[in-house]
Design a protein that fits this description.
Blueprint: H1 2-32, E1 39-43, H2 47-57, E2 61-69, H3 73-78, E3 88-94, E4 100-106, E5 126-129, H4 133-142, E6 146-147, E7 152-153, E8 163-168, E9 174-179, H5 198-208, H6 214-229, H7 233-243, E10 244-251, E11 256-258, H8 259-273, E12 278-288, E13 291-299, E14 307-316, E15 319-327
Parallel strand pairs: 1-4, 5-9, 10-15
Antiparallel strand pairs: 2-3, 3-4, 6-8, 7-8, 8-9, 10-11, 12-13, 13-14, 14-15
Helix pairs in contact: 6-7
């Protein structure tokens, strides 16, 4: 029992230290003004070979070029370079989503030609994220890329669910492929800080860049009418999730409703006041890029056009984010 108490106490202390460190780190980051990693710099023996590898094999984009730039003796001394090394050429490669890669090639390079070993000091590799590591490995092998083993799935611990494998560039530098489409083990504990991942950025961009076709928008607008005619709350909420963004804003001349809950309340109130009434659309649904216009009528079978009006939708990320309601004056 005493050992258990010691373990609990140690865990509590460790947790407090981590929390304190997180707050301290946040303060330091704000003071330093650092937002994130802009690029990673690596030296290469042949610039054309390196650029061709990053662009033709990995599919990145070469963007900027500098040099050759002569280096004076003071610069070389301050940067721990050999005095006989010549001018430098620099190219920046855009590596998909994430930090850029800065390539350096020195003319008549007098520096070491030996790559650092796995346990040597200094940067050892760059890891590239992929959603499908098997597909990536198959493709890179078809390009003649040498792998240092087979993809390995981490079975437990903080990196549970992560698959990784090392490979070599044509000039012998070690790189890595890594994948964790369902997240990593440590995320299950809902930590205060989540590691940055290009996976999350890529997913967010994919959602934000989703463009709906006119046919897709018309179908969503048709479903919008089904929402307002549905009396079952669960079914109505299920339909809402297909059509509306969670923070949708409905703007009427008399009020503004935000989110599912407020819109649901308005629909229920409307159905209570006019039992048996149904919404139907008149004319065709107009679509202009991400904006749609629906002319509607509401009423009973005997008088289907008791109330008429028009809804204007704004779609973003595949969902309606704005709904402007115009009700015609009574006849």
């Amino acid at each position: 029992m005493s050992n258990l108490k010691k373990q609990i106490k140690a865990t509590a202390v460790a947790g407090a230290l981590l929390a304190s460190a997180s707050v301290s780190n946040l303060g330091a980051q704000q003071k330093a003004g650092i937002i994130g990693i802009d690029h990673v710099g690596i030296n290469v023996p042949d610039m054309n070979q390196a650029v061709n590898f990053f662009t033709d094999v990995l599919g990145f984009s070469a963007v900027t070029t500098l040099g050759p730039i002569p280096l004076d003796d003071t610069w070389k001394k301050n940067n721990h370079m050999q005095s006989g090394t010549g001018a430098v050429t620099i190219r920046m490669v855009k590596a998909g989503t994430g930090a850029n890669i800065e390539l350096f090639q020195y003319q008549d390079n007098k520096g070491s030609k030996q790559f650092p070993g796995g346990d040597d000091l200094g940067a050892s590799h760059i890891a590239f994220y992929t959603d499908d590591i098997k597909q990536s490995v198959t493709f890179l092998k078809s390009k003649g890329v040498q792998f240092l083993g087979e993809p390995f799935l981490m079975p437990s611990g903080d990196t549970e669910g992560e698959t990784w494998v090392y490979f070599l560039t044509p000039w012998g530098a070690k790189m890595e492929l890594v994948s964790y489409p369902n997240g990593k083990g440590y995320e299950k504990n809902k930590p205060a800080t989540i590691l940055w991942s290009p996976k999350d950025v890529h997913s967010s961009k994919s959602e934000s860049s989703k463009n709906l076709s006119e046919t897709e928008i018309r179908l969503l607008v048709e479903t919008h009418l089904a929402i307002w005619n549905e009396s079952d709350l669960k079914k109505r909420e299920a339909l809402m999730k297909k059509v509306y963004a969670e923070d949708i804003e409905m703007v009427d001349s008399h009020f503004i409703a935000k989110g599912f809950k407020e819109i649901n309340g308005f629909v229920e109130d409307l159905q209570k006041k006019a039992p048996g009434s149904k919404f139907t659309h008149v004319k065709s649904i107009d679509v202009n890029h991400n904006i749609a216009r629906l002319f509607w009528q509401n009423g009973t079978t005997d008088k289907p056009d008791a109330v008429t009006g028009m809804d204007l939708f704004v779609f973003e990320n595949g969902k309606a984010v704005k709904l402007y309601v115009f009700v015609d004056s009574k006849k």
